Predict the structure.
Amino acid sequence: MTHMLFVLAAAVAAATAPTPAEILEQSPADAWRDVAPGDLLLMDVGDRHRVAIELAPRFAPAHVGNIRALAGAGWFDRTAIVRVQENYVAQWGDASGAVAFPLGFERSVKVDYSLGGLPPAFDALPFADSYAPATGYSGGWPVATDGRAHWPVHCHSMVGAGRENPPDVGNGAELYAVIGHAPRHLDRNIALVGRVIDGMQHLSALPRGTGDLGFYKTRAERARIGGSRLASDLPPAERPRYQVLRTDSPTFDAWVQARANRRDRFFVQPAGGIDICNAMPPIRRIAD
Amino acid sequence: MTHMLFVLAAAVAAATAPTPAEILEQSPADAWRDVAPGDLLLMDVGDRHRVAIELAPRFAPAHVGNIRALAGAGWFDRTAIVRVQENYVAQWGDASGAVAFPLGFERSVKVDYSLGGLPPAFDALPFADSYAPATGYSGGWPVATDGRAHWPVHCHSMVGAGRENPPDVGNGAELYAVIGHAPRHLDRNIALVGRVIDGMQHLSALPRGTGDLGFYKTRAERARIGGSRLASDLPPAERPRYQVLRTDSPTFDAWVQARANRRDRFFVQPAGGIDICNAMPPIRRIAD
């Protein structure tokens, strides 16, 4: 990422450097990638509040295969938000354990919580991290690496597959989204399956559960899930379109450096650094 | 913190190391400090949802003096939550600008966003940070330092004093709490005045505003503030009592290391590190 250093030098030199928002406004079309309809999980929370999740099949292929099977069958529509723990997660699934799984669903799937080798197509962040020797992006997803292996990281809005104590019992039928400060101690301990790319507030602003670990104590507290499906199962004209800023684009490098060294009028002291979870790739929805 | 290294070695050696929760349960009484009633700001949000804030006078003495004057006059009771921005802040104050300030309030106060020298009574965290050469605790508060100066940091639940673009226009009449991932780029740019130590969910689960920066568009969306006062203005029998784990206690060191190297049954891979905002000093309320 030698071009990052040039961007940094330019930002320091120019008192009128563009703000992060201006950098995005001026970005070329090819700095953005489309979210594939087959990776776009849509669901409603409670009163038709739409949440959109981009799935990350590379990190947990069997879990994502299960999630696609569940979404295709409308299985999540018979589930609810069962847990909202302050500064931690909102979690949904079938609390009764009674909703039959569709064909193609595997109850027990294995996952490698970390993947061997350096991250492929790695765009490194040039700043220190409290949890790993290096962080950055692989195929656009936030990852950490120790040089021998790499793994996706638990930033705000990331979606994981809940499990019990044995490490191989998660299967994608119980999902959670991070709603608070990044719980990075979960990295390499739970399968991450995607990221909420729209409607995060419909999960994060839910009432907190008052039971242990933020579980709701009564059925009445649970918000229903509805309308769950993959965008690829909708007619093309009805599919919402999202784009994610490519982490291998000069626009992304400039945006990271502008975020790490804020020169907007408000700021008196640029930070000089940024952590991976404050540098999640920007998302935009393309108008219908 | 050489004793931290011994704790680390012990944790690695012992397969049955205590969990973070067990460490707190077994803590001696002298590992905890009382929150002083004169530093304990109480307020209700909306339908009498109590929020408790510990003030940090050392970092922003004039702001905290103003906040004490406002609380003593019940001034915040004529204000409301005006802004809730997803993954950022909940903010309250007098949106009308019409509520008269009490005696003792100073409209314009100066603050040093960073304080000279190393942090006094510094308990360093032995892990890297993305934003500063070192982080830790000073007098129990989370701080960062570059060796020449130190400053409090914007972790989840920290409370700051909103301001406009000129750096010296904040005065404590407009406050915000961090409700998402730590926005550390605000460090050294805004006065931090305290930390929410109870009732955080009454701020973080509020509906997000749909205006620019999460401001509510209509008056009807705003949750009223009520019952604001300092605990020291209540009769002693009515004061809630809180304690914060002392960051200079062996219990705190053991808790940090257990959080950085989780060995609870759930975990398969300890992180080996932790960031300052995932290691905020634990709080407990003493039963009445």
Remarks:
- Chain B touches chain A through 49 residues (CB under 8 Å).
- The mean pLDDT of chain B is 93.
- The first strand of chain B starts at residue 32 and ends at 34.
- Chain B is about 15% helix and 25% strand.
